[in-house]
Amino acid sequence: MAGKIQIMETVLRDAHQCLVATRMRTEDMLPIAARLDDIGYWSLETWGGATFDASLRYLKECPWERLRKLRAAMPKTRFQMLLRGQNVVGYRNYPDDIVQAFVSRAAANGIDVFRIFDAMNDIRNMKTAIEAALKTGKLVEGSVCYTVSPVHSADYFLHVAEKLADMGVQLICLKDMGGMLTPYAAYEIIKKIKSRIPLPLHLHSHCTAGLAPMSYMMAIEAGADIIDTAIAPFSQGTSQPATEQFVAALKGTPYDTGLDLAKLSEIAEYFYSVRRNYAEFESPVNNQIKTDVLTSQIPGGMLSNLVAQLRQQKSEDKLEAVLAEMPHVRKDLGYPPLVTPTSQIVGSQAALNVMTGKRYSVVAMETRNYVMGLYGEPPAPVSEEMKKKVLGKKEPITCRPADLLEPGLDQARKEAASFASSEEDVITYALFPEIAKDYFLWRNGRGEQQQAMGLSQ
């Protein structure tokens, strides 16, 4: 059914996460905020994913303060965030009370749409986050992580979407984090979901393999309602298709976005200059169509960070070998979709296999936890050889992983009492204790220095 296509702009989150290793600073976002707010996007992705961790770890910025500043600068546009279900914005499962507190404060600080996913498509790992987000009265977008394997089919993705709809989400997202969705697969899956589930469908993909623009057009024909795009200077490569590209392509059709190309061009001009500020985080893979992603399945956000990590170890020349090893590790682990944290688990283990020269001679703790079932139920069984090597005679758990966790917020509040100055600080500490403590001590020390110098903080 033909209708206006809505746009979610990713430049303030996923686009820079993919292209410049999540390093864009708030100071480069605020000067263009009013113009972004004036465009008429369905939503702006401003938070979540790796931006929370990266703000603390690399930029010495408070992610909550970023959200508040952006919210104040853009009062008209919906703010959307990416939430990793029980992993929140981290890389492991957190207790329910921490998940609930995070969602509540995120909504209070300015998030309007929660895109919630689980790396395994394990609905049990999404339940607490979805219920907490619905309780805030904000929009909840239940995500189906797309991947390709012998156990993933159009009916599989429909089944996950139906479970999400039954939980009360208001939108369904087909999340193609690896850029592997082909045009006709997009058409088949979206047609099937739209025929069975009367909810808006939001499509997310990446241009890594060069497929996303074609897949978006077929998705639109199949009934997709919202697409993710990035303003041209932060588009393509491992990022999303260009916003201007689709505004132009759909103009004058029943799908016309109604957005103004002239206004978008002004925003693009600003971001071309901003991107130059982050040249040191650029990677050659950002400027190439990498069809080998169809084999490695590595998502765009992880690819730029993997390159940066290998570069730090002076092992960038090992990238191709690591990418080639990833499908073997993924198969052994039961074909998980590769998105945080499973992409990091598979990628790190593949890197260990390559660096040591022998598969699984060293097994990362995260890999052990995965095989134990602490990240959820894999789409297919873990190989018996892998289970025996990692677990010995132990049996993996069968319950929801978070059921094994004791509440953690009160303990975090006690531990952070000497340096946390808000409930948001406590939640930050609960999620990333060591990184948060380092940040708070740095922040508080800076404040003392500024006061001594007669400066305002």
State the helical fraction.
40-55%
Order of helices and strands: EHHEHHEHEHEHEHEHEHHHHHHHHHHH
Q: Estimate what percentage of residues fall within beta strands.
A: 5-15%
Rg from C-alpha positions? 21 Å
Number of strands: 8
Q: Based on CA inertia axes, which overall geometry fits?
A: globular
Structural class: alpha/beta
Distance between the termini: 54 Å
Number of helices: 20
Largest β-sheet summary: 8 strands, parallel, barrel
Low-confidence stretches: 447-457
| Average residue-wise pLDDT | 92
Walkthrough of the structure:
The chain is built from 20 helices and eight strands. Helices cover 47% and strands 9% of the residues. 52% of the residues are buried. Helix 6 links the parallel strand 4 and strand 5. The chain has an eight-stranded parallel beta barrel, surrounded by four helices. It is an alpha/beta fold and 457 residues long. The C terminus is likely disordered.
